[in-house]
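Dear U.,

Please find below the material for section 3 of the report. The protein was modelled together with NAP; I have listed the sequence and SMILES used, followed by the predicted complex structure.
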Amino acid sequence: MKAVLVEQPGGPEHMVIGDYPTPEPQADEILVKVKATAVNRADVLQRKGHYPPPKGASPILGLEIAGVVEKVGSAVTKWKPGDRVFGLLEGGGYAEYAVIAENMVLPIPENLSFAEAAAIPEVFLTAYQTLFWIGDLKRGERVLIHAGASGVGTAAIQLAKAAGAEVVVTAGSEGKLEACRKLGADLAINYKEGPFVDKIEDVYGEAAMDVILDFIGAPYFEANLRALAYDGRWVLISTLGGARVEAVDLSAFMAKRIAFTATTLRSRSKPYKIRLTKEFAGQALPRFRSGELKPVIDRRFPIEQVQDAHRYMEENRNIGKIVLTIGE
Ligand SMILES: NC(=O)c1ccc[n+]([C@@H]2O[C@H](COP(=O)([O-])OP(=O)(O)OC[C@H]3O[C@@H](n4cnc5c(N)ncnc54)[C@H](OP(=O)(O)O)[C@@H]3O)[C@@H](O)[C@H]2O)c1
């Protein structure tokens, strides 16, 4: 089969389309003819050689796919060739074919295209897990979502609003803030125009955020601590701004009884991901069918233009997802 190969760790120019053996499904897996996949920051890091795939995973880039079932393993009961499916992978999405465990697969709602379905798994499952499983977000609470226009951010805004929470976001341009408002954000703050925490305090007062989804890390450390409410939950999902905090006053964590959790979805066990996928299917999939939840796609690139797609993400230009289409 054809697949995107990384000739050597480094820039986008090292990704080329080449031949790679077509994977064979194990007994509990299905082989999917991939119609669309999507770009994630993890792919960028892996391309640079900074994020090796977990043990046993395909070395090919790509954490999510949408496509058509080509072949099923001997123990598979839920799917048959021809079914339209999508799901989360540990790797292997940037290819003509990918294998995926049958319990990690979801049916594509009739109203969604392959490209739209491919824009869902990584960001919506991450947002669902961090808001509700880790952040324990409840109806009527307030959540602060940094990088609000990112793939995960745009998913988190929608899920948090659907759950009856009040949503505050930060983002770096007026276009991104407007997109966040359209998705339901109650307050959208341009972090380039002054400390975001001052703006939050102007509107909600001190210590007003029950949950923070933090993609930024070190530069926001003090401000996040200040913005968090008593019994606040701080979920560290990425360190886009830096990972090293020089001085930490632990007494502030104690005084406000703050829970700090850091997480990566990719490293979670298969049973954990299957549980998450199953719960998401029950809670969120019907809302995609009804149109209440929408995949947010910024741009689609044919897989042959994968280099441009990576450059686009690295320039922080996207609002929502960057999708790669295959064989269109
Ligand atoms: N832990 C997990 O399980 C998990 C799962 C999925 C994704 N992630 C991580 O979550 C992050 C978001 O993923 P994504 O795919 O949604 O990303 P994305 O769509 O590429 O968006 C990232 C956005 O973050 C903002 N940003 C970047 N550097 C920044 C900085 N130094 N300070 C402030 N804002 C900055 C930029 O928007 P502005 O223009 O608004 O600054 C950028 O467009 C990535 O780092 C990804 O690796 C983690």
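For the text of the report, you could mention the following: The mean pLDDT is 97.

Regards,
Y.
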